[in-house]
Design a protein that fits this description.
CATH class: Alpha Beta
Radius of gyration: 14 Å
Strand content: 15-25%
Order of helices and strands: EEHEHHHH
Oligomer: single chain
Structural class: alpha+beta
CATH architecture: 3-Layer(aba) Sandwich
CATH topology: GIY-YIG endonuclease
Number of strands: 3
């Protein structure tokens, strides 16, 4: 099982979107020196804003890419506010569609 996760940084007022199989471990890494030379190091401390449970890594990567393409804080906030958006997103990148 994989997850798309959305982090929020109050210090830089930005979101960070990623995918992982262990959300808590990834959050810990973002908030420590593990990613010190990466873009996400600017936003420490990060708060977990939202997660989306995906069927597999492939679906998680597609959902992550879709959210990043939107380039919209409003879209990210709406994902949390309106679960039907997330449901449609998961359906769009359903593993069964990839097998065709």
């Amino acid at each position: 099982m994989h997850f798309v996760y959305v982090l929020y940084s109050h210090s830089i007022d930005r979101f960070y979107i990623g995918e992982t199989h262990d959300v808590q471990l990834r959050l810990h890494k973002h908030n420590t020196d593990f990613y010190d030379n990466k873009w996400s190091a600017r936003g420490k401390p990060w708060d977990l804003f939202f997660t989306i449970q995906c069927h597999d890594k492939s679906q998680a990567k597609q959902v992550e890419a879709h959210i990043k393409r939107m380039k919209s804080k409003t879209y990210i906030r709406n994902l949390k506010l309106y679960p039907q958006i997330t449901e449609r997103l998961l359906a769009k990148y359903s593993p069964s569609d990839q097998d065709c």
